[in-house]
Amino acid sequence: MSEMPIVRIQRAAIRNFRNVESGEIRFPCNYGEDIFAPKADVLGIYGQNGSGKTTFIDALEILKTLLCGQKVGTELSDCISYGQEQAELQFEFSILKLDKGSVSYRRRFIYSAILSRDTIDESVKCVTPSSVPEKASRIKTIFECTHEAENAVFLPQVKLDSLFGTKQSAKVNELRVTKLLCQKEHRSFLFSPEFLKMLHDAAQKNDNDVEPLFEIAYFAKTSFFVILNRNNGLISLDAAIPVNFRTETAGGMFTLPIDRPTTIPSNLLEIVQQVISTISMVLCKIIPGVKLTLVELGTELMEDGNQGTKIQLARELLCANGETHRLPLKYESEGIKKITSILHLLIAAYNNPSITLAIDELDSGIYEYLLGELLRIIQNSGKGQLIFTSHNLYPLETLDSDSIVFTTTKNDDRYTRIRSVRATNNLRSMYLREVILGSNNDAALYEETNVSEIAHAMRVVGKRMENISIKEETSSEVSHG
Q1: Could you give the count of Cα atoms lying within 13 Å of 387 in the half-sphere of its Cβ?
Q2: How far is Cα 295 from Cα 226, in angstroms, rounded to an integer?
Q3: Measured on CA atoms in the order 153, 156, 160, 163, is the torsion positive or negative?
Q4: Is the pTM of this model over 0.85?
Q5: How far apart are CA 15 and CA 138, in angstroms?
Q6: pLDDT tens, residue order, the chain (481 aa)
Q7: CA atoms within 13 Å, Cβ hemisphere of 238
Q8: Contact between 244 and 227 (Cβ < 8 Å)
Q9: At residue 51, what are phi and psi to the nearest 5 degrees?
Q10: Is residue 417 part of a domain?
Q11: Is the Cα dihedral 340, 345, 349, 352 positive or negative?
C-alpha cells in the first residue's frame, strides 16, 4: 500500500510583495546532503520591526490559500507593493513518496504565481533527479496558465490536447469557463477543485506528470498550517481562543470563547475532547501544574435545529484538601492561552514529517527559556517543518545557525544569514554586535536609530500635547465616556 508523500518547502522567493521588493530564503533542509531526509526542519526569522518578517508569513498564507483553491479575496490588492503592478511568489517543494517503507520516487516541485489586482498567472514545474550522478536534473514545465492565453487554457498545448482533446472539444470549453470563473473570484485555476477533478478524470492512472499536483493540493489542505499574529488579538481581548488542531480524520481551527460557555454541534464534541485532552497531556509537562479540561454544561437545541452541547474550557486545580477545583481559562495568563492555542499543531509538527507549520510572533507571551527549550526539542528530535518569527533572541543560542534568517535594510535583498559561524561562536552575540557596530556590507541588519533624536522628539511632542485645547463641552463628553 502506497503511503502519503512527505512534502517540504525547500526554497522561497517573493518579489514586490508588501514591503519586500525582493527576498529569497533557502530552508535549512535545502543545505543538507539529502534534501528529502524526513527530519525536523526549523526556520526562525529575526529582524527589526517593519523589516519583512510578518510579510513572509503572510506570503505563506497566500500560498496556502492558492494551493487550497480558495479565494484570495480583497487581500490580493493589499499584497502588491505600492507603485507596482504585480507581486510574484515562487516556492520550491520536495516530494518524497514511500511505498511499504521503500522510496518510490523523489521530486522537486516548483510553483510560481504572479498576482495582479485582477488576475493570477501561475505555472508548475517538476524536477526529477537524474539516476545518473553525472547528469543534471531535468526541469519540466507541467502546466503554465496565463490570463492572456484564454483560448489555449494552459500550456504546453500538447499536454492540453492529450488530456482534454482539441480546442473545440466540450471538455476544453468547460475548462475555459472554469478558468474565467477562477480569475473572477481570484482563485488559482491549476489548484481549483473543478480543474483537479477534471484532471483526475482525464489523466491516466500512472501519469507521473500530474500526480504531484494532487500531492501538493492534499498537503496544503491537510498538512500546511499558518497561524497569523492577528489571531492573537482574540486572546488579548479575552474574546476567544483559536485552537489549531490536526487529527487523523480532520484538521483546522475552532474558536472557544474565553469569557463564557459556548455551544458546539454534538457530533464535533468527540474531536474537541480529543484535541483538548492531547493539549493537556503535553501542557502539564511544559507548565507544571497546568491541566486543561473541557467542562460539559448540558445539551441544548442549536439555531439550525440540531442538538448541541454547551461547553467551557477550564483549568483543573488541585486544592490542599485533595479536591479538584475548575477555574475558567479566562483567568489565566496570555502566555498559557497562546501555548494552548498552538500546542496541538506543535505536537503534530513534532511527530509528522509532512507537517509544515508557520507561526507569526511565536514568542508572544511565552517565557524565553521555555521558548528556547521547545525549539531545541523540535530541532533535535522532531520530524516536521516549523517556520516562525520572533523578537526574543534566546533561540539564537539554542538553534543551529542555518536555522536562523535575518532581515536586512536592503529592500531588494531582504533576507540573509550570518556566515562563518563556528561551533564555538554565540550567534546571539554576533547578531547584536552587527546591530550595534553595523555591517561591513550593503545589506545591514539594522537601520540605525538615534537615542538622542528619539528623546528629543518625545519632548517636543509632549509640549505640543500640553498645548492642545479641548472645548469645555467636548471635555465633559470625554470624561463621561
Answers
A1: 29
A2: 29
A3: negative
A4: yes
A5: 25
A6: 457 889 999 999 999 999 999 999 999 999 988 888 888 999 999 999 989 999 999 999 999 999 999 999 766 778 899 889 999 999 999 999 887 777 778 899 999 999 998 889 999 999 876 655 555 677 889 999 988 766 678 888 888 888 887 766 888 889 999 999 999 999 999 999 999 999 988 876 556 788 899 999 999 998 999 998 876 655 554 556 667 677 666 666 677 777 788 898 888 888 888 888 988 999 999 988 888 899 999 999 988 888 999 998 898 887 777 778 888 888 888 888 888 888 888 998 999 998 999 999 999 889 999 999 999 999 999 999 999 999 999 999 999 999 999 999 988 999 999 988 888 889 999 999 988 887 666 678 888 888 899 999 999 998 888 777 555 555 555 455 5
A7: 9
A8: yes
A9: -105, 0
A10: yes
A11: positive
Long-range residue pairs from 23-27, CB within 8 A, at least 24 positions apart, any chain = 23/52, 23/56, 23/413, 23/414, 23/415, 24/415, 25/56, 25/405, 25/415, 27/385
The whole-angstrom separation of Cα 349 and Cα 300 is 36
Tallying the residues shown for the chain, one arrives at 481
β-strands 41-46, 385-389: how paired?
Answer: parallel
Q: Examine residue 246 and state whether it is found in any structural domain, yes or no.
A: yes
Q: What is the CATH number of the domain that holds 439?
A: 3.40.50.300
- Compute CA distances 119 → 77, 116, 122, 393, whole Å: 10, 5, 10, 40
* C-alpha 367, offset from chain centre: 22
273 and 149, same structural domain?
no
Amino acid found at 337: K
Residues 430, 421 contacting (CB under 8 angstroms): yes
Q: Report the alpha-carbon distance of residue 383 to residue 83 in Å, rounded.
A: 42
| Residues 9, 48 share a domain | yes
Cell of 168: 473545440
Instruction: Return d(Cα 387, Cα 391) in angstroms, integer.
Output: 14
Q: Is the same domain home to 90 and 177?
A: yes
Distance (Å, rounded) from C-alpha 214 to C-alpha 196? 7
**Domain count for the chain:** 2
474 is a domain residue: no
Range of the domain at 107: 1-223+352-446
3-state secondary structure labels for all residues of 245-257: EECCCCEEEEEEE
Query: Do residues 59 and 71 share a domain?
Result: yes
